């Protein structure tokens, strides 16, 4: 028999109480879904729904499929696109609590694990917008939970489910491969290598490989664009972190109190007799961390691995406070965890008006940050990239409407990056703008389509460069936005005519995978 406070409980409340925190998490995300508007990547994914396929230059197709479903159900509604990451957040919180339960955690441990997964800024930010990261975090949490359940029960059928979940997770982000490799390393280093001979484990692995295969084949057919994208991003865009800087940034994303809980979790997984059965999970986490440290990964790439540490740490906190006066001690730990997370929440999710956020940021002595090599304004990049997109489409529409009727009939819009092009495709359509073209990532693969280049509205470029390609170049307007990324503020909008080379012949030179 299970201990009384570990068992599910009796009655309606006992059955539904584990869902209380996930429901609150969902409610919080839905109450704050607007933020500052659409994020740059969201516009790219929405535009990609018109080009459904087995892959895209820099990511698998899963997030575009989710965007396609949201678009069919809700149109181009911001709520519709943000609903799905909010649901992923709720399920992740539920899985963190369930994993703590597998490790022997009772009510307090399950709640503390769930609170950590719900409020830690680094995790919270993953669910604030529609990106592949939300579903990557969820898939990792599900795999951690299935692995922990196998370690407790020995039920080898769980490997089949884990393979299926991993295969679905690979449809969103290939970093799921890190978890698979980490689990193999964990099983070997923890003395459970015999599990690698289990027929069901291999069937699960084959299932994941079969689900992943269409994306791999797509990449092969298009010349492995993701590898080119990753090489360019590492060399020219991403900030390089030393191992110490990586760990420091990771701790900042988690917050001081939950970092201590997570540290207790990894320590317990590796050394505690109480969690000896789950030792493979500790080694798996370290293996994943080692891979990321050796590949110049961004600190947020480690976010999906946090859940296992939250759960293990919460179990140990529960055990260490399981004495007289435990209610007061646990209340203090919980309050400290919530408060330390709450301080960072405005940096993870756009819940404050811009002016209030800027003042809050200044009061804490924090400067805007980015994991990419871009000049920043007064907002961090993840917030700046939510500004200016409808206004950009309106500015381009004004230029377009001033063109002679004959020019409008053959004009198209060229964006320098998928944010600009996505803004034209999403917000420009109701304004009568033609679809955008761009040389950036998957937009380049989609080609110039019906755009001849005879009349081209070009965003963010230099006149002398355009005059090498076009016979006539004139300034159509200037786009200004205070809080977008500085490199997109005060941007000229050019009208270029009489191309010296057909756009389709020029296209190969326009490719930009970064």
What does this structure look like?
- Strands 2-1-3-5-4 form a five-stranded mixed β-sheet.
- Helix 6 (107-119) runs parallel beside helix 17.
- The protein is of the alpha/beta class and 514 residues long.
- The protein is globular, with a radius of gyration of 25 Å.
- It has 25 helices and five strands.
- It has three domains: 18-351, no CATH class; 355-384, no CATH class; 389-510, no CATH class.
Helix/strand layout:
Elements lengths: L10 H6 L3 H12 L8 H9 L13 H13 L3 H25 L4 H13 L1 H4 L7 H22 L3 H14 L5 H14 L9 H23 L3 H12 L6 H12 L1 H16 L7 H16 L11 H15 L5 H23 L5 H10 L17 H4 L4 H13 L3 H6 E5 L2 H10 L8 E3 L3 H5 L8 E5 L3 H4 L3 E10 L11 E9 L3 H4 L8
Secondary-structure element order, N to C:
HHHHHHHHHHHHHHHHHHHHHEHEHEHEEH
Spans with pLDDT under 50 lasting ≥5 residues?
1-10
Structural class, by secondary structure, is: alpha/beta
Side-by-side strand order of the widest sheet: 2-1-3-5-4
Helical residues, percent: 55-70%
Strand portion? 5-15%
Q: Using DSSP, what is the number of strands?
A: 5
Cα-atom Rg, whole angstroms? 25 Å
Major sheet summary line: 5 strands, mixed
Tell me the distance between the termini.
56 Å
For the residues shown, what is the average pLDDT? 93
How many helices in DSSP terms?
A: 25
Morphology? globular
For the record, the count of structural domains works out to 3
């Amino acid at each position: 028999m299970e201990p009384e406070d570990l068992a599910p409980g009796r009655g309606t409340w006992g059955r539904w109480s584990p869902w209380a925190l996930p429901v609150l998490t969902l409610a919080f995300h839905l109450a704050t879904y607007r933020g500052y508007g659409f994020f740059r990547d969201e516009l790219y994914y929405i535009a990609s729904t018109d080009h459904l396929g087995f892959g895209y230059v820099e990511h698998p197709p899963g997030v575009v499929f989710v965007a396609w479903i949201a678009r069919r159900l809700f149109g181009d509604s911001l709520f519709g696109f943000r609903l799905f990451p909010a649901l992923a957040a709720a399920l992740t919180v539920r899985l963190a609590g369930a994993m703590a339960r597998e490790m022997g955690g009772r009510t307090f441990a399950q709640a503390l694990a769930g609170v950590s997964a719900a409020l830690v800024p680094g995790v919270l930010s993953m669910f604030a917008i529609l990106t592949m990261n939300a579903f990557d975090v969820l898939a990792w949490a599900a795999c951690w939970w299935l692995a922990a359940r196998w370690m407790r029960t020995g039920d080898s059928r769980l490997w089949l489910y884990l393979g299926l979940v991993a295969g679905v997770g690979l449809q969103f982000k290939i970093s799921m491969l890190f978890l698979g490799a980490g689990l193999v390393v964990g099983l070997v280093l923890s003395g459970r290598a015999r599990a690698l001979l289990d027929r069901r484990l291999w069937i699960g692995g084959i299932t994941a490989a079969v689900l992943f295969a269409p994306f791999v084949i797509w990449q092969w057919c298009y010349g492995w664009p993701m590898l080119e994208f990753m090489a360019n991003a590492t060399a020219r865009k991403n900030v390089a972190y030393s191992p110490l800087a990586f760990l420091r940034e990771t701790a900042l994303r988690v917050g001081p109190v939950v970092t201590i809980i997570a540290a207790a979790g990894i320590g317990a997984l590796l050394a505690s007799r109480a969690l000896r059965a789950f030792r493979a999970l500790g080694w798996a986490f370290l293996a994943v961390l080692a891979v990321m440290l050796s590949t110049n990964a961004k600190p947020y790439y480690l976010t999906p691995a946090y859940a296992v540490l939250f759960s293990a740490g919460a179990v140990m906190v529960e055990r260490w406070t399981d004495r007289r006066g435990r209610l007061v001690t646990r209340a203090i730990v919980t309050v400290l965890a919530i408060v330390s997370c709450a301080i960072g929440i405005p940096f993870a999710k756009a819940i404050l008006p811009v002016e209030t956020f800027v003042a809050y940021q200044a009061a804490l002595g924090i400067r805007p940050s980015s994991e990419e090599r871009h000049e920043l304004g007064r907002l961090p990049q993840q917030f700046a990239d939510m500004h200016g997109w409808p206004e950009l489409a309106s500015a381009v529409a004004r230029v377009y409407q001033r063109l002679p009727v004959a020019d409008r009939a053959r004009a198209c819009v060229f964006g320098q990056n998928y944010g600009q092009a996505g803004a034209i495709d999403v917000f420009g359509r109701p304004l009568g703008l033609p679809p955008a073209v761009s040389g950036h990532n998957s937009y380049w693969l989609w080609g110039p389509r019906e755009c001849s280049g005879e009349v081209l509205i070009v965003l963010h470029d230099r006149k002398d460069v355009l005059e090498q390609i076009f016979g006539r170049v004139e300034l159509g307007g200037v786009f200004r936005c205070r809080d977008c990324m500085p490199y997109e503020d005060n941007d000229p909008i050019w009208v270029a005519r009489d191309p010296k080379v057909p756009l389709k012949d020029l296209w190969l030179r326009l490719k930009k995978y970064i």
